[in-house]
Amino acid sequence: MPVYVLDSNFFIQAHRFHYPIDVAAGFWNKVRQLAEETRIISIDKVKKELYDKNDALEEWCRNNLPADFFKDTSDVMGAYSQVIAWANSRSGHYLPYALNEFLDADEADAFLVAYCLTDPANIFIVTQEVSEPNRKSKIKIPDACLALNVSFVNTIEMFRQLGETF
User: Fold this and answer.
1) How do residues 109-148 score in pLDDT, each as one tens digit?
2) Inter-residue contact 21 to 15 (CB < 8 Å)
């Protein structure tokens, strides 16, 4: 059974724009259910991005996600080195600050790709980012995924693939 690894923008965009916690309880109940069933997970770097605002989203995550929802990325350093090598091979295309941001050890994006690279047939990234291969100022998760043969979907496509409604 595939596992979906959530980018921080899954939570942030849902909360701020599409499914506010105080309005769209069905969405958040479904997220909690899928997390409890371990059909969706995330990584420690995403947790760090979510748990720095002291807002309603952070409170919801703390109160509703299982303790083991955010996976440790220290075990994916071999795959992370592949992501680093790919990004550095694109230094002629991307601006230096785009590379630095993508490869910053505190940023989640490269680690999300690396986590999924450990089992690309069964682990998929869920992100709201879209591919922008000509962009030089930012490395988008889908562009790294396409280059490294990692599957990615957006939120709605994940729910479709899981056969879930809310």
Assistant:
1) 999 999 999 999 999 999 999 999 999 999 999 999 999 9
2) yes
